[in-house]
Amino acid sequence: MKVAKDLVAASATPMVLGILAEADSYGYAILRRINELSGGELDWTEGLLYPLLHRLERLGHVESSWQSVAGERRRKYYRITDSGLAELAEQRRQWDTVVGALKEIWRGDSQAVVLGVPG
Amino acid sequence: MSEGLEAQFAQWRSYVQRRKELRGTDVEELEDHLRGSVEELVAAGLRDDEAFLVAVKRMGSLDELSREFAREHSERLWKQLVLTGDVDGAADPGKRRELVALVACAVGAALSVKLPEVFGLDLDRDGAFYATNASLFALPWLAGFLAWRRRAGAAVIGVLVGLFAVGAVAANVYPLAETSMSVVLTSIHLPIALWFAVGLAYVSDDLRSPRRRMDFVRFTGEWFVYYVLIGLGGGVLIAFVFGTFEAIGTSPETFVSQWLAPCGAAAAVVVAGWLVEAKQSVVENIAPVLTRLFTPLFTAVLLGFLITLVVTTSGIDVEREALILFDLLLVVVLGLLLYSISARDPLAPAGLFDKLQLALVVSALLIDVLVLLEITGRISEYGTTPNKAAALGENVILLANLAWSAWLLLGQVRRKTPFAALERWQTNYLPVYAGWAWVVVLIFPPIFGYR
User: Fold this and answer.
1) pLDDT tens digits, one per residue of A60-78
2) For residues B65 and B31, what is the distance between their CA atoms, to the nearest angstrom?
3) Which of A28, A31, A56, A78 to mutate to test the interface with B (most CBs of B within 10 A)?
4) A interface residues, B as partner, C-beta within 8 Å
5) I need a labelling partner for B112 at 20 to 30 A (CA). Which of A51, B119, B151, B316 fits?
6) Quick check: B138 and B115 in contact, CB under 8 A?
7) Residue B175 pLDDT more than 50?
């Protein structure tokens, strides 16, 4: 099962902000972490991640800085800001509402559909 | 990491850098990502080159990636004209030097306008002097700027100095009365003659190349568009100067009419030229776009005029202004032709637009022949004046150009002559305009007894 594109896009912001709230990170590591957390089910592309990071930076939710790693290479690290934390809290509230409502609907209806277990 | 892998990264980098949606820092960030991916794959047991291939493949198509970036950074698709330095902050000394040269030339042009006042001339009282000399204030500076940019040789610079000197002599040595026709004729034709001197400076890095001459035609069109735009901006500025200063009871009229307007107009000549040079590769040419818009409209108007003429069977009323009007019509048609040539892909086969152009040129020719027949009758009846002779000469020159262009266009539409023939004809014809303008400026006044 792959998560639908729309759903991936909708959940992208809280996910990135959530990961950055754990610790500062950089693009590749964020993608790895998302992969890990979802057991490889969330299909993120670089085309989704980097423009999103740049947008969050433009909105002031994250800050970036270049840090040198091995040799001449530089790596762009992202750090969540206070406004990013506030945004995360807001997004979290909204997601809790959505997830809560869905759970309410699906209570007792524990069919395979929800879990996606192959028949 | 191995050398082979580094080479592959370098290749990838140069490939990705060509995308205008991606800035240098984006490429760096993506490369870091790619390296992370490769390292992990190598650690998992893949060989370097295999890991690289897989990592690149995982990143997905570059088109898609660029599209996603463009969605966030849409401003990058609007090419920005950066005056000094580039986005990453590194100032380019060449660009800075050019900016200094530009400012020097623009200030020079602005001050040249005020220079005659040192010798007791006045912008209000000596209208004839300023009318005939107007082009001598600004154009030498533009030519100088272009010659400097092209690193023109001593011979070209000598010829340029000579041409402008001849222009100065023609404008000032002949005893032309302020109300004479010759003053008007010189005021119109000297700028044209000197503009071709600017053209010489423009093509000074490759004098014989027809491609370069075509570039000058493009330059002229873009320069004109920019000059008009700067003029509009200047008008707004002047309106605000008047409005604000009059609101506090001070009249800025002297300042505007003696300084701001004349000096600004002269400086704008140089600035517009520089803008065309600077944005050459940055912004799409606007003159060909206007051409595309107006060629069908002009064709429709001219055909409509011809049909009306035939249906109503009324002759053309050739008043004094009529000849000049039809001269201007031919200039517009020629301009439409030139600028669509300047933007045309030389290898593209003839299409609908070429046929439309043929219709435009042929209808303009038909109208002009009718006008010419009428006017030669008039001249043989009443004798000639400098105005009529100049207008007639221009008409003949334009007619000759358009007639042969029509022939070449016909060949092109029938796929017998290549497009290059038309382009070569137009670029080779350019000196004819310059020659005629010099004839009017230098030879007409003595012939017609300085009337």
Assistant:
1) 999 999 988 877 788 999 9
2) 13
3) A28
4) 26-29, 31-32, 45-48, 50-52, 54-55, 58, 73-76
5) B151
6) no
7) yes
CA B396 to chain centre: 25
Residues B399-433 have pLDDT tens digits of 999 999 999 988 888 888 888 888 889 999 999 99
Contacts of B31 (CB under 8 A, 6+ apart): B9, B12, B13, B16
Angle between helices B287-312 and B210-247 (to 10 degrees): 90
Q: Which of A5-19, B289-303, B327-341, B379-393 has the lowest mean pLDDT?
A: B379-393
Q: What is the ipTM of this complex?
A: 0.79
CA distances from A42 to A30, A37, B188 (A): 13, 9, 72
Query: What is the model's pLDDT at position B84?
Result: 45
**Closest residue of A to B35, CA-based?**
A28
**Chain B residues within an 8 Å CB radius of A75:** 32
Written as six digits, the tokens of B448 are 């017609």
For the segment B58-68, the average pLDDT, to the nearest whole number, is 82
| Confidence grade of residue B15 (pLDDT, cut at 50, 70, 90) | confident
Residue in B with minimal Cα distance to A69: B32
pTM for this predicted structure: 0.72
d(CA B392, CA B373): 11
- By Cβ distance, the residue of B29, B65, B73 closest to A47 is B65
CB atoms under 10 Å from CB of A23, counted, come to 10
Please tell me whether residue B246 adopts helix, strand or coil conformation.
Answer: helix
Crossing angle of helices B320-343 and B386-413, in 10° steps, is: 30
Min Cα–Cα distance to chain B from A102, Å: 31
For residues B417 and B425, give the distance between their C-alpha atoms in angstroms, rounded to a whole number: 12
In this prediction, residue A69 carries a pLDDT of 81
CB B104 within 8 A of CB B148: no
Residues of chain A with Cβ-Cβ distance to B19 below 8 Å are none
* Residues of chain B contacting residue A52, judged by C-beta atoms under 8 Å apart: 72
- Alpha carbon of A89: minimum distance to chain B alpha carbons (Å): 24
